[in-house]
Amino acid sequence: MNIFERMDEYDYEQLIFMNDSETGLRAVTCIHNTVLGPAIGGCRIWTYDSEEDAIEDALRLARGMAYKNAACGIWAGGAKTVVMVDEDHPKTEAMLRSLGRYVNAMGGRYITAEDVGTTEDDMDSIYQETDYVLGTSMKPGTGGNPSPSTARGVYMSIKASAKEKYGDDSLKDKKILVQGLGNVGLNVAKYCQEEGAKVYGCDINEKSVKNAEECGIEIVEPNKMWDWEGDIYAPCALGATVNDETIPQMKFDIICGSANNQLKEERHGQVLKDKGILYAPDFIVNAGGVVHCHDELYGGFDRERANKKIDKIGDEIAKVFEISKKEDIPTNVAANRLAEDRIKSVEKTKGIFNLNPSSSLNK
Q1: 205-214 pLDDT, tens per residue?
Q2: Which residues are CB-contacts of 359 (< 8 A; sequence separation ≥ 6)?
Q3: 0.85 exceeded by the pTM?
Q4: I need a surface site. Which of 152, 188, 296, 315 has the fewest CB within 10 A?
């Protein structure tokens, strides 16, 4: 991998390598840009096959966060931290505190948060070393687990998608399949149920399946998922479920869920468009969580204020659909354009972010 060529491809600002042999910390933080404000992005802890895979994941996810934050109107840039773990280097409190010291040394250019492989307790450990962390239970004015907010944003996006496809945002009697019944997916299912939708669920985790069944959700076996016929498919688990193998089997009108990187390749957006399936771009659909966390920066988390912003995610999805129709382009391309235009509109006057000494983050 030629790192600088890779960074030039999508205008990345910074790639930071962190190593602490005492704690076993091996991590990479990628800052895509700080045009709109300090770069916000979660800390992902994962077992990677190689260092190159970890770097590529950090680059890809940081760009996704930058576009997510821009498209949903957050005054923040995008970043991501990935921590490499294995049997010899498991996650520990010491490792997390070491990471916290590195984050603190960045001086506010980067603010971390929870992601795959991390928990609220992990954010508490990081908070022992830095204020530049969101979602900790120990800081006054924090919002706690952002999963319900992510689900709320998905629900608003599903309604916006229904309005675009059917002319009405009502979900009553719509058949909706939620793949992934964890903290986000189960809440999405409940929102849809409350509006009178017929909700189906799919998950490989037995506990998640049991929780869903107790809520009256009809379970579809994972190996029969692509036999399901309905109206809306809501992927809320792993990415890349939209690919050359699955698209020909799809028997529904809309794809709208919280999973990251649902399209295995960008070209699949055009394939869906040609097939007549409406795709709501995931990085906007799942933005409720980052909106939730970002709200902490406004003098402490306020649920009512955060929900007002989250409820506007559906409006942003509607803008994407409008751009897609007007310019005759796939919705994933339209979403990227929406984000890029917002970044460019500020870029010439904002420049590179440096934390203002009077910022509330320093108080």
Answers
A1: 999 999 999 9
A2: 108
A3: yes
A4: 315
Q: How far apart are the first and last CA of the chain?
A: 41
Assess whether 264 carries a catalytic annotation.
no
Q: 185 a known binding residue?
A: yes
pLDDT, tens digit, 9 for 90 and up, residues 206-248: 999 999 999 999 999 999 999 999 999 999 998 899 999 999 9
Q: Which residue reads 């042999």 in tokens?
A: 21
Q: In Å, how far from its chain's centre is CA 132?
A: 19
Asked if 41 and 62 count as a contact pair (C-beta separation under 8 A), the reply is yes
Catalytic residue among 80, 165, 190, 309: 80
Q: What's the mean pLDDT in 343-362?
A: 63
Q: Is 144 assigned a ligand-binding role in the annotation?
A: no
Map tokens 């906007």 to a residue: 284
In order of start, what are the domains of the chain with their CATH numbers? 3-66+76-128 (3.40.50.10860), 147-343 (3.40.50.720)
108 known member of a binding site:
no
H or E element in which residue 97 lies:
helix 93-105
Q: Is there a binding annotation on residue 184?
A: yes
CA–CA separation, 236 and 298 (whole Å)? 29
Q: What is the pLDDT of residue 146?
A: 87
Which two structure tokens, joined as six digits, stand for 290? 């980052």
Task: Give Cβ neighbours of residue 345 (< 8 Å, ≥ 6 apart).
Answer: none
